[in-house]
Design goal:
- This protein is an alpha/beta fold.
- It has two domains: 18-98, lambda repressor-like DNA-binding domains (434 Repressor (Amino-terminal Domain)); 103-300, Endonuclease, Chain A, CATH 3.30.870.
- It contains 13 helices and six strands.
- The protein has a six-stranded mixed β-sheet, sandwiched between helices.
- Helix 2 (23-40) packs antiparallel against helix 6 (85-98) and helix 5 packs antiparallel against helix 6.
- The longest helix has 18 residues, at 23-40.
- The relative contact order is 0.12.
Length: 301
């Protein structure tokens, strides 16, 4: 059997068609492909930039998917890397699609710029590992709980803005019902189950929803109990995203105040993967965690 061509793109159907049309994922895949093709051509970013009369930092930003791709830039790079003309035309079409708006842009009036990227990445992920300290993860919130969180005790907040934010959060949850949903692995501090975010009925409904989610085949939920021996905590939420194809870099998302950090360097992602592994070791198994959730439900009956 002949060897696979190293310059061929991975299958992209899952990112090009509904319900998962995802320009963010497409840009990342194209960016990773540019990096592979440059390496195959035996060029460093500095050498490639010298050939094209641009900065090495521009090459690096393009290869990390940090900036929108332009057809001319991509075509110039592909030509430099020895890609066939007919394949360059295929890339041009994909570049155009990578610059289209994702479904979440309909919420741009309530969507912070720093959060826009996260939604696209989460949509593209094959595995989502998340750790929460005080709140139920957004993907597993009920509408009533999400509304209480969005209000945050501010009764004078603009209700239309709050409802739009809740609508965005609920729309994000639809990825759990995709034909090929991501594996969601959530580790929660026990405090999440007992923090009174809303009234008893809302809390009961939220915990029941959490218990039902834990029974889904692609959702794994584990609780770190208050009395966990040798329990550890990072002190703040962590989300770790992995993708298919595996050539895409893993990404760690850390939200803070009015912004967020996106970490994709191997040293950084390995560090947070290790932290999550430690948290997982401190957590109860899924079966015991489910019993703990059911026990918490009784507090609100």
């Amino acid at each position: 059997m002949p060897a696979a061509q190293p310059d061929r793109l991975p299958k992209l159907e899952r990112f090009l068609s509904p319900p998962r049309h995802n320009p963010t994922a497409l840009r990342l895949i194209l960016a990773a492909q540019l990096r592979r093709l440059r390496r195959r051509a035996g060029l460093t970013p500095k050498e490639a930039s010298a050939r094209l009369g641009c900065s090495a930092s521009k090459i690096s930003r393009l290869e990390r998917g940090e900036v929108p791709l332009r057809e001319r830039d991509v075509a110039d790079l592909l030509y430099l890397y020895g890609v066939e003309a007919e394949d360059i035309d295929e890339y041009r079409g994909l570049v155009r699609q990578s610059n289209e708006s994702g479904w979440w842009q309909q919420f741009e009036d309530v969507l912070p710029k720093w959060f826009d990227k996260f939604i696209g990445l989460q949509e593209a992920a094959s595995i989502i590992r998340t750790y929460e300290v005080l709140l139920v993860p957004g993907l597993l919130q009920t509408p009533e709980y999400a509304l209480a969180v969005a209000q945050g005790g501010d009764q004078l907040a603009d209700q239309q803005v709050i409802e739009r934010r809740v609508g965005l959060r609920l729309a994000r949850q639809e990825l759990l019902d995709y034909p090929d949903p991501p594996k969601v692995w959530a580790v929660l501090e026990e405090a999440v189950l007992h923090r009174r975010v809303a009234d008893r009925a809302v809390m009961r409904g939220q915990l029941q929803h959490l218990a039902e989610a834990a029974e889904r085949p692609h959702v794994q939920l584990q609780i770190i109990p208050f009395d966990a021996p040798g329990g550890v905590t990072s002190g703040s939420p962590i989300t770790h995203l992995r993708f298919e194809p595996p050539s895409l870099p893993e990404i760690v998302y850390l939200e803070h105040g009015q912004g967020a950090l996106y970490l994709d360097k191997t040293r950084e992602t390995e560090r947070y993967r290790s932290i999550l592994d430690g948290l997982l070791n401190a957590a109860e198994c899924p079966e015991a965690s489910l019993k703990r959730i059911h026990g918490a439900i009784t507090r609100y009956c």
